[in-house]
Amino acid sequence: MNGLPRWDLSAIYPSPESREFSSDIDHLAEIGSRLILLSSSGVASLRELIDLKDRGDSILINLSAYTEALLSTASDDPVYMKAASMSEDAAVRYQKAEDAFLRAVPSLLPEAEEDEDLASYRYYIDRLRVESSHLMSPEEEALAAELSRSGSTAWEHLMVGVTSSASDGGRTLTELRAAASSPERSIRKDAYEREIALLETHSTALAAALCGVKGTVITLDRRRGWSDPLERSLFASAIGKETLESLISAIEASLPSFRSYFRTKARLLGLDTLDFFDLFAPVGDGGNGYSYADAVDIVVSSYSSFSPEMGSFARHAVESGWIDAEPRKGKSGGAYDTFFPESGESRVFCNFDGSYDSVSTIAHELGHAYHDSVIKDLPPSLSTYPMTLAETASTFSEMLVFDSVLSSSSGGTALSAVESFVQSAAQVIVDIYSRFLFEQAVFERRKSGDISADELSSMMLDAQEKAYGDALGVKHRYMWAVKSHYYSADFSYYNYPYAFGELFALALFSRRGEKGFDGVYRSVLRNTGMMDAASCAALAGADINAPSFWNDGISVILSYAERLASWS
Questions:
Q1: How far is CA 332 from the centre of its chain?
Q2: pTM across the whole model
Q3: What are 304-324's pLDDT values in tens digits?
Q4: How far, in Å, CA of 482 to CA of 418, rounded?
Q5: Cα of 475 vs its chain's centroid, Å
Q6: Which residues, at least 6 apart from 6, have a Cβ–Cβ distance to it below 8 Å?
Q7: What residues form DSSP beta bridges with 348?
Q8: Shortest CA distance to 306 belongs to which of 503, 513, 507?
Q9: The domain at 19-150 falls in which architecture?
Q10: Phi (first) and psi of residue 336, to 5 degrees
Q11: Second CATH level (architecture) for the domain 203-287+383-568
């Protein structure tokens, strides 16, 4: 598609070779040195240490987000690669300061209980208490930080580099995956087969990368006193095991109904059985008819219908060059939002293809960006929210677009919108379940040694079978090779939080018409970094430990699936 925008990063740094970029590298090092000194001196108050760390964290987040943004659009650019290396080196050095800060916390906790100035930091301090109890020795933490550059981070870069540059001679992996939403089955099938062949060519390297990352996580989590990676993930997600078990049980109970949806989609497409390359096929006549300008107008008007402030924010983001929508060689697949705390701005990364799903993706990522805007004046210690709450604003924003499009559509266009919504929700519930099962199996199997590419593919197929059953014929044995979340040592189990976020957002969306609810919604977003997930949900009257909470959200999705069945 022609005329799609590329984002403007000049407001963040003029360039990765600019004085401003190198100055922040130096500034971070200075803050790190001072934080180490004050943390060990015993003369600084906890508030002084928190304020200093917040300053360093803000710069580090800015540097990391900037270089990741550069690499995601051109992974093999030597200038970008050098900047990323500088940022990573700075992060490794700064980690020593973070370690010193955490070690100083326990001795300052009595003071924190008495200090009214720290009242708004209670939740943050409680989490610091837990984090400080999971530290290795200073020497071990320093070594782990230094080795990460040539270990887990290098493995992650290998995965990103391979998948963003891999090509079958005609099309990149990103372009092949984009064809999954083509209305032509022959095109979808051909792209799928080419994708599988391409991933098989690189499977040995990708398997080594995945095993390297997961092996690192297992070793470090054990040495830090976590029972397993899932325990650390639950802490990072700010939920308890009871909540996760309730969520997973609700998902498992819903699988037969979602399988009925997949059979419905097969009938709507004129197929006997749905194959993996049919999952994202458009249904109806509104699947691929959106220009980028259409998408922007739909998102802005949908946001505005709920909150004029949200609508103005979305328009500002578009007009300020915050969105990179053009698919191109060297650009990674997928979509994300990233925030730059030093400038208080966000950037949205996506690969627009004209489908309704692409419109929804822009709404989703701009929802994240709106969340950023609500908390941009808060320091990192009060604005860093868990993954479970990270999808709240994005999914809520998707629903605004869905509701708007559906209310003004009929016939094939309405059919397309409903199917796209259910399709997306099914991915968040069913496919996320398969990813959760797969990651569990990988961690368990990795304890006994490396895992071959063939074994990983077998494990992936087994997880997909448990999730999709016989409602999906041909499956995708290499899904483990294209999901970057598996390759992050810092974000194990980056899957179930999406299901949490989807269902929580549905609960919020159901109340959108209540007087003053835009204020309640903003309050929820504002507090996502200042309380655990249960407390934050309670602000909107939700009890995430009640089984009915999850079932109610799933019922909303399935009600639209039943509507689809009436069309088939």
A1: 15
A2: 0.85
A3: 999 999 999 999 999 999 999
A4: 27
A5: 23
A6: 73, 324, 325, 326
A7: 323, 337
A8: 513
A9: Up-down Bundle (1.20)
A10: -160, 165
A11: Orthogonal Bundle (1.10)
